[in-house]
Amino acid sequence: MPTLYMEKDMSRDIYFNSYLDTYISRDVKELTEIGNELSFRKFIVSVASRTGEQLNYTALANDALISVPTAVRWLSILVTSGLVYLLEPYMNSELKRITHLPKIVFMDTGLAAYLAGYTSARELQLGSSSGHYLETFIVSEIIKAYNARGITPNLYYYRDKEKNEIDLIFYKNNKLYPLEIKKTAIPKKEMIKNFSKLEKTKKEIGTGGIICFYDTLIKLDENNYIIPISNVINYSEPQD
Fold it and tell me: For 10, 157, 184, 189, which has the most beta carbons within 10 A of its beta carbon?
C-alpha cells in the first residue's frame, strides 16, 4: 500500500477500512454475489490471521459462522482477486507421509496485520505469529517479482507428517532450490537440516540458503547462503 508510505499523516484505520469497502463493493461483487457482507468481512479477517499457516477450511468456516462449502467458494474469490496466494506443498512419488495442504499467503502483510488486530509494528514483532508474517512477506515479495515479469512461479514448500518443514522451494530446470525463512540475525547450519529430505526425490538440489536479518550475503557452506531480507526485495531467479 504505497499511499500509506507517501502520506505519513494518513490514518491507517481509515485507509484500510476504505480499501476493504472498495474491495468488497467493487472487486468481489464483479466476481460473485457473496450475500452476507458482514460474514465475508469476518472471513477475510480469519484468513489474514492465519497467513503462513496450512489451509483449514473448517476453522475458517467456524470463524465466520458459515458452511465449509461457502468457505471454499469465498477463499477462491480471494485467490482469484489476488488478495491471497496458496503455496502448494511439493509433491513427489518418492516422498512419503507428506502433507497435501497448501499454505495461506496473504499478499499484503500490512493489511493482514491490520485485519488481525495488530496496532503497531512493535506489537506484531513481539507477537507469537511474527514468524508467519515474516514468511508471508518474503514469499509474497518473491511472487510479486515473478508476476511483474509475467512469469508463473514454481514455488512450493515441504512438510511431512513428523512436521519436518522447508519454508520455500523453487523448482526450475528439474532442480530444487530450498530456502528457510528465519526471524534471526544469527543463522545456524542446523536450520537447514531438513534440506536433506529432498534427496529422496532423486532431483538435483541447487543452491539454497537461509533468508534472515543478517546484513551481508555470505556462504553458509558449500551449497547454501545466508541471504539478507533486502536481497529478496531485489529478487532474481536462481541461475545455477
Answer: 157
